[in-house]
Design goal:
By secondary structure, the protein is α/β, with parallel strands linked by helices. It has five helices and seven strands, in the order βββαβαβαβαβα.
Length: about 140
Amino acid sequence: MFAVKFEDNTLTMTTILVVDDCYSIAYLVRLMLERRGCQVIIGCNGHEGLALLDQQAFDLIISNYMMPHMDGLTFLRRLRQRADGARIPFVLMTASARAGVRQAALDSGADAFLPKPFSWKELDAILNRLGIHPSPH
């Protein structure tokens, strides 16, 4: 099964950027997404995420909130200032219990919010809502 999109009547694999300073979480999310047939690139903080965006296009970004050097909200705000950043769906995930994080994410332009810990079904539901569907095999 592959997550696909159509461009000029051709199929291309969905490419997702996962940004998290905790490699084990990023790797777990990567495995979940690869099960859907997505290509996944991992960055460790917002600075690296922006640098990766300079190198290639992404169909979706999933980012942690609390990271060193550049947190997920700052990354999201800088992304939305870019010409290519307004169209990319963005999911902010966090284990933070701080009040207002979810609303700050949505106010900053996040398309979805994913509290940690999360299940495959929760991530799958968000991907479906954002139009990232696996193709039938």
